[in-house]
């Protein structure tokens, strides 16, 4: 399996699998418990666990209830229906190593607008109160942890018995296949793309839906929304709006074009995104910090600037590739490397590597504004507790690891051309430092 070159060594993979399987589910539950029931205080939860041990953890672990399953089922069915039925432009994904070109329907922005308008409409007209979601959050996360695991087993079996394209295959190792996935773009039928569903329409959409939920919960409890919550919600919504605005571009990034559909990416999108990514907002529900208009505005503007810069980096790379280098980058003709590579089927192809603009500052400069955006939507929580900042720290580790994985993959794909790029643009993420 060609992709196995792009990921970690088998030993590190076993370690990651075991840690993900054993540590992440309890972490999700403990994070939820700490935010919602322990005042956001890690030491309070730690003391509780010290006193009650494993039984204490089992006691606070919510059982997935019928309400939780109903909420997840309605939400998933609604998002799947929007993905299938809403109109959208036909978009071709990047050529895969097996020489296939997946075709998508770009209706993400429409699905996003319909989802938020429906959700707010249900609340406004008294049909469904989003606070129900907040009040059953622990049960929902618990159901997601279990349901997503079963879903990943389904992906593994499908990869073996009914792969959707030739971009699939086994490494010969069950654990690696389950963890890193078998299919690059599994589908149900010809049109329902599973990764678009898990990553975009379930994971990213749940981020926006939960951000709005937290805001409404605070409003219903306190009769008002604190400026800290407003800054947090607006920045998260700007970020997710940017994501759906650019969703077709996302289909040519690592998550979709290189990472196979397995536990690593699918469990992450189905469980980790709704729980961990939204956690600063979860904290703010019970901590209505008042920043004052001026500070709130400074944070808001700084956050929006970072989200815009991150968007502009992605846009620049994609515009450059789309026009085959015949575009302006920061007002000038772009400087570039024409890099050739060989596909798994032995064909020689070429790609352009941009070496000016954002992509001339460092090889993964776009991760800098990504991390700063997360910092700015978390900082309204101020510094009384560490836990709201967990996502920023996690994201920093994730992106530094991702930059390395991507560098390794590109080095093995482009060989001497990647070496040339590294000579021209020597820093990996932070210009002048790393
Ligand atoms: P990208 O897929 O956008 O970029 C890496 C790919 O781009 C490489 O694999 C290579 O692919 C191509 N490439 C590399 N250098 C160049 C160059 N100089 N010129 C042209 N093409 C190049 O990276 P990511 O998927 O990591 O990021 C996409 C977005 O998602 C970013 O905004 C990032 O911040 C965000 N993100 C957010 C995460 C989160 O959890 N919040 C996690 C990960 C990403 P090829 O084989 O085509 O040459």
TrEMBL record:
PROSITE patterns found in the cross-reference section: STEROL_REDUCT_1, STEROL_REDUCT_2
Listed Pfam families: ERG4_ERG24
Domain of life of the organism encoding this protein: Eukaryota
Documented EC number(s): 1.3.1.21
Keywords, ordered alphabetically: Cholesterol biosynthesis, Cholesterol metabolism, Endoplasmic reticulum, Lipid biosynthesis, Lipid metabolism, Membrane, NADP, Oxidoreductase, Steroid biosynthesis, Steroid metabolism, Sterol biosynthesis, Sterol metabolism, Transmembrane, Transmembrane helix
Bilayer-spanning residue ranges: 12-33, 109-128, 140-157, 196-216, 228-246, 261-283, 295-311, 374-400
UniProt-listed InterPro entries: ERG24_DHCR-like, Sterol_reductase_CS
GO cellular component assignments: endoplasmic reticulum membrane
Topology within the bilayer: Multi-pass membrane protein
BP-aspect Gene Ontology terms: brassinosteroid biosynthetic process; cholesterol biosynthetic process
UniProt GO MF annotations: 7-dehydrocholesterol reductase activity
Intracellular or extracellular location(s): Endoplasmic reticulum membrane
Similarity section: Belongs to the ERG4/ERG24 family.
This protein's name: 7-dehydrocholesterol reductase
